[in-house]
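Reviewer 2 asked us to include a model.

Predict the structure of this chain.
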Amino acid sequence: MFGDCQNRRGKFWRFAAVFAATGALAMAGCASDTGGSGGEETNGQPPAASAEKVDEIANTVPEAIKSSGELTIGVNIPYPPNEFKDPSGKIVGFDVDLMNAIAATLGLTPDYRESDFAKIIPSIQGGTYDVGMSSFTDTKEREQSVDFVTYFNAGTMWAQRPGTGIDPNNACGKKVAVQATTTQETEELPAKSKACTDAGNPPIEIVPFDGQDAATNAVVLGQADAMSADSPVTSYAIKQNNGKLEPAGDIFDSAPYGWPVQKGSPLAQSLQKALEHLMETGTYEEIARNWGVENGMIDKPVINGAVN
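Predicted model (structure tokens):
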């Protein structure tokens, strides 16, 4: 699950970069961009939730990281709404706000280092990064190399215009917009369409677009009955379109996302405790709702929670 762009984040995540501002995407090698845990809305992004150091949790951080005062984070962008750059070039997103709050709880300053996705886990193994933050699916295969702290569930989610009444499990004869080359176009919708025709019903009309923004607009404008995309992408589209879209059914084919750390590192327990604290204070939910991805929230983080 490393390598080409189509596989970059896992089974459910494909080519979601279309929301990012194209003028702010230039990057070469590794770069550093830090962010605080609080602040006001800038460049159209939601305000960051505030978090403060919790000594009891901060004291669990490995000494080498604690003494440096920084949490070095490998990240691959763009992948909105989780991690991307705003028009000023600052790294923003759901993952970023959450990691900023985690770092604040641990009494550390986040140091984001841009990297090729496939290089993040090897760099964690080699000690270049303390943790990875790029919408990683926690898989049993990856758990052979690193440990994961789960923080989110992601899958596929449909959206429709309000009141349309689309059923993702019975969309025979409907027009469904999708971004080309995604799992939804190549696997999900063809299988569902075949089930329709096998039962003697009309097929699903799959309407592919080069970019997710165009697929979303097709639904908003009534050119398609519904859209299918990765759950955070769909949730973000619903939030951005402010009443013009609503969920059609629930998230399905879900899998946990996690932060990778070195195998056996006590940092995993530190991250887990920090996230549990943010859940207890409501900060986790606040951040998820700010970015419109609350449907993927989990109740309890675990270390190595892969389902496949």
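The domain at 5-155+254-296 is CATH 3.40.190.10 (D-Maltodextrin-Binding Protein; domain 2). Residues 183-198 form the longest helix (16 residues). We have added this to the supplementary material.
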